[in-house]
Amino acid sequence: MGKDKVHMNLVVVGHVDAGKSTATGHLIYKCGGIDKRTIEKFEKEAAEIGKASFKYAWVLDKLKAERERGITIDIALWKFESPKSVFTIIDAPGHRDFIKNMITGTSQADAAILMIDSTHGGFEAGISKDGQTREHALLAFTLGVKQMVVCCNKMDDKTVTYAQSRYDEISKEVGAYLKRVGYNPEKVRFIPISGWQGDNMIERSDNMPWYKGPTLLDALDMLEPPVRPVDKPLRLPLQDVYKIGGIGTVPVGRVETGIMKPGDVVTFAPANVTTEVKSIEMHHEQLAEAQPGDNVGFNVKNVSVKDIRRGNEAADFTAQVIVLNHPGQISNGYAPSGDAAIVKMVPQKPMCVEVFNDYAPLGRFAVRDMRQTVAVGIIKGVNKKEGSGGKVTKAAAKAAKK
């Protein structure tokens, strides 16, 4: 992977069946992420279980269980390259149960691709109150993803037939909503595409001569590269922790601030476990150092998977909260939907947060209940708990003496 290229993390959001996995898979397939033989194998497997139209999505749906159900569950990390950038796709699933996954995924993204189903009926379902188009756009903005590209997908559908009028209608309605959420509509590009046929994905489409803007790949190359805070202390929220035979415990996550190198001594909160980093990998390549924005796995010594887990610890924190919709009771001077308040929150379980102004990625959160996002917020102040218990591994003690 070219270290001199800009590294961007993208999250793909949108309503279920908007064609996120197909369009994303197509991009990865065309931009060298996957070889032709693998795609042919996917085509054969997809046809065998009667889902031939899923071949590009297959690229992303690696897990067997996902394949058979035809939905993307876990956040799959895939990369593709343009002449200017290396993009890591964090494929955020569209089903309502999976918004939790989306929240951990979007907190790692530099930009979002909002996938819209342009078909008649499909767009209306996605943008409705029960659809996920609005919620995903709002969550992306709240979780700090300030750049967005909107794809009006399925332009090849027989209800659309590449019509400019449909593209204009969708751009107008979605643009107005994104403006209300907080995006600057002048900076959000709307691209009419077919994730299946490939129109306007990488090459310009002859089917839509009326569209004069960039292709999807060009639009992604026009995104502002993120500023990476290398001079702050290391903060690395964990996505997961794996036990790998012959290697040991491998936590996985994205470096948000600071730098991590093999030999560094790190502390995991809330377990308060201190140990040494043995090696760091990204996309199966060893790294001499991990910088902000890198999605990495790193091997740690003398620590079991039980000792470390996702999430971190605060005694209580003060946050600016906006109530979005309200399925039940919010007590203590309840604020109706759309209202904002400064709230003191005391977590029931160990949880790690930081002040938004110091560490933005760790200073945002969403409150969910009854499968709905009830409120979103940013953290203004944290009263941290002293770490109790915990352990310092032999490897860390040894490294500290060096």
UniProtKB/TrEMBL annotation:
Its main location: cytoplasm. Keywords: Cytoplasm, Elongation factor, GTP-binding, Nucleotide-binding, Protein biosynthesis. Residues 5-230 form the Tr-type G domain. The keyword Cytoplasm applies. It comes from the Eukaryota. It is found in: Cytoplasm. InterPro entries: EFTu-like_2 (IPR004161), G_TR_CS (IPR031157), GTP-eEF1A_C (IPR054696), P-loop_NTPase (IPR027417), T_Tr_GTP-bd_dom (IPR000795), TRAFAC_GTPase_members (IPR050100), Transl_B-barrel_sf (IPR009000), Transl_elong_EF1A/Init_IF2_C (IPR009001). One of its GO terms (molecular function) is translation elongation factor activity. One of its GO terms (cellular component) is cytoplasm. PROSITE patterns: G_TR_1, G_TR_2. The keyword Nucleotide-binding applies. CDD domains: EF1_alpha, EF1_alpha_II. This protein promotes the GTP-dependent binding of aminoacyl-tRNA to the A-site of ribosomes during protein biosynthesis. Belongs to the TRAFAC class translation factor GTPase superfamily. Classic translation factor GTPase family. EF-Tu/EF-1A subfamily. This is Elongation factor 1-alpha.
